[in-house]
Design goal:
eight-stranded parallel β-barrel, alpha/beta
Length: 701
Amino acid sequence: MQAGTTAPGKSFPLGATVSPEGVNFCVFSKNCTLMELLLFDHADDKKPVTIFPLDSWKNRTYHYWHVFVPGIRPGQIYAYRAHGPFEPERGLRFDPEKILLDPYGRAVAMPTQYSRVAASQPGDNCAKAMKSVVVDVQAYDWEGDTPLRHPSTRTIVYEMHVRGFTRHPSSGVAGNTRGTYAGLIEKIPYLQVLGITAVELLPVFHFDPQDCPSWRVNYWGYAPVSFFAPHPMYSSRQDPTSVVDEFRDMVKALHRAGIEVILDVVYNHTAENGKDGPTLCYRGLENGAYYILEPDRTCYSNYSGTGNTLNANQPIVRRLIMDSLRYWVEEMHVDGFRFDLASILARDEAGQPLQNPPILWDIESDPSLAGTKLIAEAWDAAGLYQVGSFIGDSWKEWNGRFRDDIRDFFRGEEGSSARFADRLIGSPEIYGHKEREPEQSVNFVTCHDGFTLNDLVSYNDKHNEANGEDNRDGANDNKSWNCGIEGPTDNEVVERLRNRQVKNFLAMTLLSVGIPMILMGDEVRRTQNGNNNTYCQDDETNWFDWTLVHRHADVHRFVTLLNARRLLRDVEREQQRMSLNQLIRQANKAWHGVKLNQPDWGPNSHSIAFTVELPKEKLLVHFMLNAFWEPLEFELPTAHNEEGDIWYRWIDTALDSPHDIEPWKSSPAIPGRRYRTETRSVVVLFAHLDPSGSQTTSPGR
């Protein structure tokens, strides 16, 4: 093909847009002096088969470079080269020898010899560079699929890794589909049985697998290269365009099973890292627009802890983020997003926190995103902590204080009981001032970053030696307790205590007010052998070992029954837009200690009891939470029912399965007016109210 066959093209839309006649290409660069569009036959080509130099007069409108190439079809591999000044002191880093991805590319082709090093050093990297692929996003049959929009009241989030979920040989998934979007589809029945209503997928935007120590691979995926392309290494198909369809197949299958898809998205940095990092895309197109730079413009601000920070409130980057989000909702049908280090998006172009960050309000107020679940990790790596103060009217927040305070309570930390109680009822101390819905808090005890639940009760210290950084990486303060022995043990007493603690944490996560999130494999005590920073471990350290489903069937059953009960929660208050404060004010409830109506909020208290009425269900529920190292006997409130003041035991984590949690309708009656809770255990009882409705007296009497 000859350059003379092209037309000037249009400045909108950005990216590669397919039409019956060909493809329109458009990319942004303000300071570029010459833009070249490169076409390739294969990802490994040492040089392009065609080069289209874009004329600064005919092919440039404002700062948008564009060209229409007739005859191009979906599947065409392409990239850019941008010529311009290399003047780091001015924030300009053009390098005409480097192959650049399209920031709006819908798919990425990976050469077999991809080299991050080649993109970091002087010289041509054509054969070893990632390249973009033309995709016709309209050429897919969704068969009537739409996002599910489950009510938050009945949302149970399962944080998981696409590859790690089925990569282990024990998954039973065929070798060519293990660790892929297609492999996940095969395991959807497992998620249904467990009672999950939403999967939160660790990053699936295309990322650089070499952004890690040279002897490892980036496993988590927090190293984005493209904000529109699904990661091709999670596909069972070889054709780069088929990756898009396989991802959509997964979304469609999950929706048919009633499961929402939430993406963990990284709009705070890219895999280009700091000043010595590779030139993959943004750095080579318009460095000073895409990144927050220090006053010394040779250096990058590092609020992400990875070497650079996206300039999220710069107009071009704002548009990129918004277009990306709309694309994943409108064309890929995802149901929500969890924003990694979301507080970075609250910083201005100088890195200072903004009171009303434009990009965050853009996201919240965009009509095409209305109803999409928005979850913020409301902090960043430079100390900006906004849990309870993140902007907006619809953002949910990962509640890091829930994690810390629940851990403190069950490991016996002094002064934790009052904070624990607040977390149990939706964290009004944190969120009450906003008059927001009770589900603003996303409650979790573990996530990908840190110990698994099994390791939380098995290790006092991190054991990250396998990462090759002499155990320096990862958090040092894990608020964990090993129950008396560090690591795996055959000691039956310690093992029983660990199993009980696991169930305690799961019970509080799934019974507290808010949206619960559990980590993949916690329901079967998956271990990472004490490694709390497994970002570079693509092996059995991270993979879901499916033999654990049988080995820890009691924990799996415990979670399944908890989830089944949670899914029966009333959604009326959510439909009425009742706030957390209103819910608490209207609730007929009472706090207790071992004696009724005498809660102990002192620093040496390690137990609490709580009674709440559920009028819609005509139930009275009584919680007894004992984190003390000795058994405690609690007084029981009067049930005032026609059954003769009878309480039923639903949960007692000190009991062996199947009595640790009973099927709701077959829960056994408990005689007497007192209940003995064993050391470090959770007990939940319930009583039926009389048919007339509410109690006539406080549940504490």
